[in-house]
Each structure stands twice: as structure tokens, then as C-alpha cells.
Write a sequence for this structure.
């Protein structure tokens, strides 16, 4: 009886044993850092006198003071507005191209489809810093072959790293690197649609354009929602592109994006407590936007299914 109980306990406890390594890793490398960041955001460094000697600097409770300072910081607000403008360009263009490429690759008339898929996806495999450096030097008039060709043709040479064109330059890097990943997600959903659906539509006289607009796009709507969700998160966390282009132009400040401000506060000003508060705010905003978008998408899906 005792051995039977042990066997039954072992069977019931097996799933927990398999989950234990993942749980430990999640706690050490995800939950614990988040908790430590929240703890830092609720404290500050208090300086006594000139701040010299032992005990002159001490960590004290600050409550919500760091959050208040972050929310009233004009640099963080301006960085958020810049990221919103950046996202207004990147997200629709990137997802539009991804959907277009996926629909084109899903047709029977496309030749060399495997090579084309690889060519479109390949920029995503290039690290963001490398891609930003590559495009950064292509934007510089002194070393870019594009400016050389424009000069020989007598055409105007716009400065893409100054003023308004800077948004287009940064957006181009993100679109070039992220379109391939989103295209693969959408294309995979297209390939999962049964062929009988297309055959029935063709028998009813539907053209390829009508099949794409009335069958393919509605059926890959969950994939579009997923890619849009990922794109929102990536846009709010933009960091490597403007940071890499910063040495090449004076138009990119050290606080161009919210994450750049976090980096500047933590390592430029050595104020890790304010940086932690700003990071927590960014995480909460990202969570709120993502949750709101997913909830809206799910409610619409339920309404359509009810109809």
C-alpha cells in the first residue's frame, strides 16, 4: 500500500518537477529583476554635507517621489511624443509591406518563392546595431554611394539625419529589419488555410484579388493582431537605432526615446533610482496599451462570431 501511494505521488508530482527548472529561471532572471527595479524606484540616495566620507551617502525611502519626478519630466514627455511619431510611420508601413509580401508569396505564379522568402526575412537576422550602423553610413553624405550618384546626376541631396527626415531614416531601419519576421508570421497563417476554400471561391467566380481581400486577409486576422501587438512593444522599446545613429548626428539627443532617457539617468547621471522609476512607468504603459489592444481585438472577434 505504501509503495502504491509513493507511485501515485510520484506520478502527480512529475509535472511540477518538469516545471521546476523553468520556474527557477523565471524567478531568477525575470521576477527578481522586476522586483529589484521596483524596490530601487521607491528609494533615493540622501547626501549629507559635502557627500564625502563614509556614511555621507545613504539610501532612504522615497515613496512615489521618483515616479512624480519622472511623470513631470519634460524630457520623458518629449521622448514619448517622438516615439509616437516614429511608431505612426513604422507600424502601418511595416505591417502593410509584410501583408503584401505574404499575399504575393502565397500565389501560384511566384517563381523562386523559397529564395524570395529568405531574401525578405534575411534583414531580420541582422542585429539591430549592425543594421543601424549600415544604414547610418549610407545616410552620411561623405561616404554614401547614394549621395555620390545624386551629385553626379545634379539632383538635390537631402540630409536624412537632420530634422524631420530623421524620423524617416530611423523608420526605414525598423521597417527594413522587421518586415521579414512579420511576413513569415502572416505567410505561415496563409499556408494553413485549406485549399478547398480557394477552390470553392474559384468555382463561384472569385478573382485572385477578391480571394485575397475577402478570404485571405479576414482569415489571417489573428496573425495581423499578433504582429501588431509585437510591433507596439518593439516601438515603445526603441533604443538601438537612435543610440547607434547618435554619434553621426546632433539631431539625436541622449534622451531621444524613453529608454534612452533611462540609460542616460542610470549611467550618465548615476541616478539608478530615477532610472528604475522611469523603466517601471514604461513597462506599465506598454502593459496597458498591449492589454487594451488585445482586449479590443478579442471583443471585436467575439462580436463577429456572434453575428
Amino acid at each position: 500500500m505504501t509503495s502504491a501511494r509513493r507511485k501515485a505521488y510520484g506520478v502527480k508530482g512529475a509535472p511540477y518537477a518538469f516545471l521546476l527548472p523553468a520556474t527557477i529561471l523565471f524567478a531568477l532572471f525575470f521576477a527578481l529583476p522586476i522586483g529589484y527595479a521596483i524596490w530601487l524606484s521607491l528609494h533615493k540616495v540622501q547626501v549629507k554635507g559635502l557627500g564625502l566620507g563614509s556614511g555621507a551617502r545613504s539610501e532612504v525611502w522615497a515613496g512615489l517621489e521618483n515616479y512624480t519626478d519622472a511623470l513631470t519630466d519634460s524630457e520623458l514627455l518629449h521622448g514619448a511624443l517622438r516615439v509616437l511619431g516614429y511608431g505612426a510611420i513604422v507600424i502601418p508601413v511595416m505591417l502593410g509591406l509584410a501583408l503584401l509580401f505574404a499575399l504575393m508569396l502565397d500565389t501560384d505564379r511566384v517563381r523562386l518563392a523559397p529564395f524570395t522568402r529568405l531574401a525578405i526575412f534575411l534583414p531580420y537576422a541582422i542585429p539591430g546595431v549592425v543594421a543601424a550602423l549600415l544604414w547610418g553610413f549610407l545616410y552620411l553624405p561623405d561616404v554614401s554611394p547614394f549621395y555620390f550618384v545624386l551629385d553626379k546626376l545634379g539632383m538635390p541631396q537631402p540630409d536624412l539625419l537632420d530634422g524631420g527626415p530623421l524620423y524617416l531614416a530611423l523608420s526605414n531601419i525598423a521597417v527594413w529589419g522587421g518586415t521579414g519576421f512579420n511576413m513569415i508570421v502572416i505567410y505561415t497563417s496563409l499556408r494553413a488555410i485549406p485549399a478547398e476554400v480557394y477552390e470553392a471561391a474559384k468555382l463561384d467566380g472569385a478573382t485572385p484579388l477578391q480571394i485575397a481581400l475577402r478570404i485571405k486577409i479576414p482569415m489571417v486576422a489573428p496573425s495581423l493582431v499578433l504582429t501588431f501587438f509585437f510591433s507596439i512593444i518593439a516601438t515603445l522599446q526603441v533604443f538601438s537605432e537612435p543610440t547607434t545613429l547618435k554619434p553621426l548626428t546632433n539631431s539625436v539627443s541622449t534622451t531621444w526615446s524613453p529608454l534612452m532617457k533611462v540609460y542616460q539617468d542610470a549611467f550618465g547621471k548615476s541616478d539608478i533610482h530615477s532610472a528604475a522609476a522611469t523603466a517601471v512607468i514604461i513597462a506599465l504603459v506598454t502593459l496597458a496599451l498591449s492589454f487594451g489592444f488585445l482586449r479590443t481585438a478579442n471583443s471585436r472577434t467575439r462580436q463577429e462570431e456572434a453575428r
In short: The chain has a mean pLDDT of 86.
